[in-house]
Each structure stands twice: as structure tokens, then as C-alpha cells.
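Researcher: Please predict.
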Amino acid sequence: MTVLHHQPLDDFDSELLDILTGPNPLDAKATFVRRDAALDPLLIAAAAAAGPHVTRNHYHHDFFPGIMLPQVEGTLDRSKNTTEDASSRNSCKRLAYVSRQAPRRQRLEEGKENDHPLQNDPLKSGDNFLLGPKKRKMSLVMSDVKHRPQKSQITPEFVPRPILPPLEVQCMARTRIPTPHGPAFLHLYHNTRDSKEHLAIVIDPAQLSETPDHCAIAPSIRSQSLDAIWTETETEMDRIIRGAYVGRLSSTSRHASNPSFQSPTMNQQDATIPPPLIRIHSECFTGETVGSMRCDCGEQLDEAIRQISQPIVLSSHPPTTIPGRGAVIYLRQEGRGIGLLSKIRAYNLQDMGHDTVTANLMLGHKADERGYEVAAAILRDLSLGSGISSRKIEGVRLLTNNPDKVEAMEKEGIHVVERMSMIPRSWQHRQMVADTSALTDDAHVLGREGGLQATVAGATLIGGNVVYGEDLDKYLRTKVLRMGHILPL
């Protein structure tokens, strides 16, 4: 049929066209129904659409106008369809298209975009283009420019970890504090890693002596950053006020420390001095200030200061006794690093039957989020455990039941010579608690009802008393069974 459009019709073609389009059938005896009425438009349309001069647009508009005009009877006009009820017709609503692209003047907000010449590098990507792994169409990129965030607000798919500044600590102040276990020096530290003020409680009573340091048996535990000269304009009184002094301050004794002074090396007799005793302690408001007996943190803080303050008997000839020496590094990381708010919420979960580890996990935290980098930096500032040859302090003894602390200190370059266990006082006095007579004779023992029997001097609200109770037993068992603390159950 395509030949009809390329050459003139001959007699045979004309007769064939008359046969196909004629109104009367050729054979009156035929019993089948003619399909000329249905085939005619299809054949003519196929023939007309085959030529190069006819497009599909002509085909739609010329041969089937009913499809493009719904008002023609018998076409796709839903209003003419009698098989649909009114409810079904109303449900078929046509959605109106609303463009989200604002006019160019409104998008650019400064007139036409060609009014101002481009100042940027033509080879540089524009600031208003979103960068992504796939190419985007220009219409999608340019649309909705007004509501697109600026380049600084765009969050890339991969956000690299921020580069933290090198960790540095500086002792901002030092002062003497009398404790129930003896004198101590409280150091307050600032650092470049967080905005918290961490502390160091240094026990070194020999520093109160007016005797020069070279006459002391053991070297002093002093802060290098505190004794240093900060500015050229600071006076000797400025250094004394912040704590850079020697001996004991009084109205008649005010001696600033020498920043260039180095402690002498130990002699052979000094080799018998054991390494200083160190405790890395994390803040616990509930256990230390309020006196909560859900944990033994207040008891541990007091016990650490007590043990460090104990006199040291040297195995020399004759035996020599020196004051106890060491430090408690007090880190401001409440609730194993989750903060006081989450810690209080975790207490409620514990009352519902969960242990401390599960409660932290349910709140979206890790079981333990504490870090010990700042503690190691403070120890280095105090010349403890860093292997400084001039002071011959090759390591420290660490008061802890947590093997993770030992590993963290070793990782930070602090040499731990020995791990010292911290046995809870309630476990130490378990046999005494069982003895009724001991309850009235020993002030350190807790009664059967879980209350404190007497007030004993100590560094916290618990003081020197014993923490005991069902909550504490669950707390300690979780430490041993789920966190790997080294304690005998």
C-alpha cells in the first residue's frame, strides 16, 4: 500500500480501491460479516502514515479527532460514559500542576542576571550549584534558587572528622587544702580539648617544708606549666597568687618558685622509694556530694586520698619513713561520660530492672564514654609516670580495678609499674558486718538496715564510712560481670 504515495494510480489500483471502499459486497452469497467499515480507516491511516511527508502529529489530528476531543460522541469522554456513577466520576479529580520555579527577577533578587558581569573564574563551579555524584539537569539546578541553602549551609555526603588541636594542658591555679587525711594541693587545669576544668589533688606534704628541695628524700610533685613564667609583665606576686610558690604561704613567708629549677636525681638510697600512687577518678555528683549509695564513687575518692596519704616506710638501714606521695586526677566526666542528665534517667531505668550498662545503651550512649587523654597530659605536666630521667620516676602505681584504665595510660605513654586494687570497704568488713557486736565498736561498719552508723571524717559526704546496700551490690556485680573489672565476687 505504500506504493500509492510514490507513483500515480493505475487502473488496477483504482479498481482495488473501489472494491475495498464500495458500499455493496461483491458476492451476495457470502455469509460472513464484512469488516470494511472497521478496516477502511486503519488501512488508509497506515498508508498515509508510511510516507516521509506525514508525521504522527498528522495522524492523531486528521484521522482520529475523537481521541483528542473528548466532547465528540463515543470517544474517551468520561461525561458520556453511562456506566459510571456520580461518586466514581467525582473521585477522578485532575491534579493541577503548580510550578515551583520563581520568576528570574525574583530568584536573582538583583535584576536581570546579565546586568552584572561575572567576577568569578569561568572554570570554577558556581556557588549556586549543588555538587553531587550524579549530573543534574539545568532545570532542576536552577529551580528554587531562592530557597536553596547557601554554599556554607550545604552538608556534603561525606563529612570528614574535624582535626582536633594538639592536646595541651595548663595548670591555672594551685592552693593548699587541709583534708581529714592530711594536707594536699589542689591544682586546677585548663586544656585545649574541652571546656571543662579538670583537677589534680596532689599529696606531697614535703612541699610544705621550707627546706630546699635538694635536701628532700623524694623529689617534689610540681606542675611545670604553673611554675613557668607566663608573660614578661607578670610580677612575683602574680605568680604567688596563682600558686607558683614554695613552702607554706603565710603573712611572713612568700617565696615564688624558680621556673628553671630542676629536681636532683635520686641517689642509691632513693632507689628504694616506691613509685607514686595515682588514682584516675571521674566526677560523681550523686555519690560524692549527695551521698548516694547506688555507687561507691564517694567511698573510692576518700579511700584513694587516704591510701596515698599513708606514710611510706623505706627498706633502708636504718628504716626511714617518708610522707605519702601521689595524686588523684579528678576528671569532670559525670556518669562514665554521659553527663548528669542522662545519668539520672539511667537511674530510673535501673529501678525498672536494667543494669547500668543496659541503661546507658537504651539511652543511646556507650557503656563507658570516658576518655583518659587529659589525665595522661596532667600526669606528664606533674612529671609522673613519663619516664623523665632527671627525676628518675620511671612509672606509677595505679589505684584501679578497671583494666581499661591501665591500657589507656600505657597507650598515652604513662608507664604503670603496678596496678593496686581498690576493694570496697563493705567487702573488707563483711565479716565484721555479720558480727553484731562489731556494729557498735567499729565506726567504719554499716548497720544491717543499710544506713551509716557513725560519722567518720572523710573527703566526701560518705566520709570514712562504708557504703552498702542492694543497689550497690547490683552496681558492683555489673562492673565485674559486664565491664571486666578485676574484683573477686
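Model: The two ends are 100 Å apart (CA to CA).
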